[in-house]
Design a protein that fits this description.
The protein contains 11 helices and 3 strands; from the N terminus they run H-H-H-H-H-H-H-H-H-E-E-E-H-H. By secondary structure, it is mainly α. The protein has 2 domains: 170 residues, no CATH class; 56 residues, no CATH class. The protein has a 3-stranded antiparallel β-sheet.
Amino acid sequence: MKIFTDDNAHPIALFMAALKTIEQDKKEILTWSSEVFAHEINRKISPNILSNSNFNKIMAVKTCLVTDACWTQWEVFLNIFHSVNGLPLSREALYITDVPLPYLYNTIDIMHFTRQQDFSEEVSRFCASIFLHEGVMYAPSPLDFCQIFISQPRYKCKTCEQEGSALPPFNYSCPSCSKMFDINAKETLFNFKPVETGKETTNVEISLENPPSETRARYEELEHQEEVHLNETNVDMQVHKLLLAKEYVEMQNDRLLKEVKEYSLA
């Protein structure tokens, strides 16, 4: 199939084409090593051979189907991120490309094609770090799972004036007033359970370091408009990056539908 020599091919379409080309039971194929997988495909499409980019795409989809690690470990997630977007894998440094948000949204979209599963806090924090790196304070669905780590909630105790992070496992109790980490008051120091509870220990107010409201409102205003006019403001710069990500995912999904039809993969 010509799809195997097209480095712009969609990962899902490539994987479906691989299953069709190899003509083996899907459950058996998923147990194959990457070397066997590559050998069988190259044997079928000879004299052509798979490029590294397309092979990585196929292996990324296979990995999503056989392990939870893509959803739980940021290092594995990063390799999926690179592979499904046709980016070279690098073990030398943490590289997320110059314009990472479109690729991030495309990664999540493709992973959701394989199956629906919740992402771990570790991966959520990693995704949030990409938004913060890009200076974007709002994560539209399907990346809304990392919004809390973008917003960075903080608490301030009105009783003792202590301030700190309100990220999970924060339970709206002031750690100081509730003696949460008082070694003299409890046997297990870091179980995050308050020793004392009451009005004084829960007298906290919550604020966000990075509130998403302005960016969210502007994005929701513009996301369905055919012609978008942006201003040179910080909020509109954030929205521009989100709209680019949305457009990129739509383009990739159009490519997938076209390839499924063209190569009779359904």
